[in-house]
Amino acid sequence: MFQSKIAGIGFYVPEKVVTNDDLTKMMDTSDEWIQERTGIKERRYGQKHKETTATMGAEAAKIAVKRAGITLDDVDFIIFATLSPDYFFPGCGVLMQRILGINGIGALDIRNQCSGFVYGLSIADQFVKTGMYKNVLLVGSEFHSAGLDFSTKGRNVTVIFGDGAGAAIIQPTKEEGKGILSTHLHADGEHAEKLAYINPGCHTGVHLGKEQFGYPEDEYGGAFLTEKMFKEQDIFPNMDGQFVFKFAVTKFPEVIGEALQKNGYKPEDIDLLVPHQANLRISQFVQRRLRLRDDQVWNNIQKYGNTTAASIPIALCEAWEAGKVKDGDLICLAAFGSGFTWASALIRW
Ligand code: COA
Asked: What is the pLDDT of residue 343?
């Protein structure tokens, strides 16, 4: 069995900065409300007609590949995590593959929302450990701004999310005690609709009641999107913020503790915790619960908002670029999100 490591990381965020004040021109909200509840000051939005989830993923991938000291031709497998894909199908993995010109290798799309990058890391780790692949390209990318509700009705969700992409190359390592020490994956579908983008889909009301979506009786076709959905603007993500918050602040410490315990460490041993950037208040709560110092936790949600599957690789990469992820450091990644899903990874860098 090989041990695997993150050999190179990269991130890409679109140029366009959207401040909280910019959002007040579209919906009834305020900079004060957003900063107080979430810590977010601004986020980036992709350029429509030019950028997509797949193109942003490709930009991040090119940087990760270069930093890993390989070429695109060395990549032997792709894992692409997103909840905002370019197409309903096929997935973004193949679209990014086409952009990068590395057709022929396998491309796996995964749908684990905010936990997508850590789930993907775990999958890559298994492939590398068994010797099946040597250079797995793992990408988390989101183009949220294309699918958000910019009316006041959608403000509780819309103000939180931003666009961007992060990527990593996972390789085998022979360095004793280094690399990905363990990964821990969890999910609980009980509360699937508490943070969800339900339409379009083939559910035809099975989980929530047919009447709610106005499905025609016993007809084939046309059920992904109905007239009622459009009329009632039931075509955007929805979130029960307080419910999600309560679950997140329980599951983050739990899954971090699981990773530490598995490897015989304590919170004080962590050099850097890179939590999924869900909400600054959630990260601060987790920090207090684990009694971590400010310099042990990396947050950048203030600049980018919540970029879901891209948030951990963007944060990890920024921290690395700032010299906060050094050789031999103990790095903990932790995520929580829609599903619900939650996950962690402990890495000796
Ligand atoms: N601007 C201004 N007011 C807003 C608003 C916005 N963007 N969004 C909601 N409000 C209003 C609500 O309409 C409500 O008004 P009312 O009291 O008149 O009914 C009020 O603010 C409080 O709403 P509530 O939903 O209770 O706010 P909250 O304190 O729970 O904060 C979140 C909302 C979303 C910031 C918070 O619940 C949260 O961060 N939850 C976790 C979300 C998360 O992390 N999601 C990603 C997980 S991966």
From this structure: 98
Residue type at 32?
Answer: E
Could you tell me if the CB of 122 is within 6 A of ligand 1? no
The dihedral over CA atoms of 89, 66, 70, 309, expressed in degrees to the nearest 10, equals -30
In the block, which residue shows the tokens 């491309």? 107
Quick check: CB of 4 below 6 Å from ligand 1? no
Q: Where exactly does CATH 3.40.47.10 map onto the chain?
A: 3-173, 179-191+239-348
Q: What is the CA radius of gyration of the chain?
A: 20
**What pLDDT is recorded for position 212?**
86
* 278 touches ligand 1 (CB under 6 Å): yes
**DSSP string covering 57-83, please?**
HHHHHHHHHHHTT--GGG--EEEEE-S
CA count, 13 A, side-chain hemisphere, 258: 18
Rounded CA separation 229/300 (Å)? 35
- Which CATH architecture fits 179-191+239-348? 3-Layer(aba) Sandwich (3.40)
Q: What is the pLDDT of residues 134-177, one digit of tens each?
A: 999 999 999 999 999 999 999 999 999 999 999 999 999 999 99
- Is 276 annotated as catalytic? yes
Residue 218 pLDDT > 80, yes or no? no
Task: Tell me which DSSP letter residue 264 carries.
Answer: T
Task: Give the model confidence (pLDDT) of 258-275 as tens digits.
Answer: 999 999 999 999 999 999
Q: Which atom of ligand 1 is nearest to the CA of 282?
A: 44
Sheet holding 106-110, edge to edge: 3-12, 164-173, 136-142, 77-81, 106-110
Helices H, strands E: what count in the chain?
11, 13
Single out the catalytic residue among 20, 112, 184, 276. 276
Architecture of the domain whose range is 3-173: 3-Layer(aba) Sandwich (3.40)
